[in-house]
Amino acid sequence: MLYDQIQETVAFIRQRASTQPKLGIILGTGLSSMTEDIVVEREFVYGLLPYFCAATVDSHRGKLILGTLHGVPVVAMAGRLHYYEGYSMQELTFPVRVLAALGIEHLIISNASGSVNADINTGDLIFIRDHINMQPDNPLRGANDPRLGPRFPDMLNAYDRQLNAWAIERAADHGITAHEGIYLALPGPNLETPAEYRMAHIIGADCIGMSTVPEVLVARHAGLPVFVISVVSNKCYPIVEIQPTTVDDVIATVQAVEPKLRGLMKEVVQRLG
Predict the structure, then answer these.
(1) Is the distance from CB of 126 to CB of 207 less than 8 angstroms?
(2) pLDDT at 29
(3) What is the DSSP string of 32-79?
(4) What is 2-272's CATH number?
């Protein structure tokens, strides 16, 4: 059933776009305007694609874009789906399944997160080296179709540490402070309490957010290499430094970093492409 739905969606896209993407990109909160650098062949609104769910978060455009980015053929998700929107894990990761079936060779994921590491500040970047999953469901739960991946995918090397090290050096050249860190995924949509931020710090997380991990699980199930860029939108540790935060605050912080991030993304795309 899932496999057939994926194939139907891929056929729908290929009938309307000739781009054979080499890279897949998921653009998180406040980062959708990075698609301005794409030479667009075709755009699809999520809700008009077979089996895609519509994005309901205002800061996520909810479009699938095919074209070339800095000379590399790509398929980009301008905004993502989240568990807190009411979708199942299988629904919100369906686009990743489609990206894999379109033939991408690498998946780049971005997000906004809160720092729970006292040495990582608002506006910094974190290249994810590992994650802690505290979301209440798993997109791989249920019957496994071996055409999509193995029953028990290994997560030892889910993230490319060598690519992270290279990206930290390149970020410095763009005037961005960058780190390598661990991402903790919680369901949201509320921001966490001070006690929850303290817990995240104690168990070893460097940043905290409401997305990304389900996408990584499905990508790794499909055998895709993954590179994750997290923009720190608010500082959540030490506790005395926490300030009330709104979604508008998060978007403003991410958009302030975006011009430098676009320059870094160009280098990442060209390296992977």
Answers:
(1) yes
(2) 78
(3) GGGGGGEEEEEEEEGGGSTTPPPP--TT---EEEEEEETTEEEEEEES
(4) 3.40.50.1580
Number of helices (H), then strands (E), in the chain = 6, 9
Q: Which helix (H) or strand (E) holds 139?
A: none
What percentage of residues in the chain have a pLDDT greater than 90?
85
Q: Which pair of structure tokens corresponds to residue 39?
A: 């030479």
What is the reported pTM? 0.96
Positive or negative: CA dihedral 8, 11, 12, 13: positive
* DSSP conformation class of 189: S
- Ranges of each domain in the chain: 2-272
- Residue among 15, 28, 5, 19 nearest 228 (CA): 28
pLDDT score at 16: 97
* Length of the chain in terms of residues written: 273
Per the listing, tokens 């280098």 go with 267
What was the pLDDT predicted at 59?
A: 59
Compute the C-alpha angle 242/245/250, nearest 5°: 115
At 157-183, the pLDDT tens digits run 999 999 999 999 999 999 999 999 999
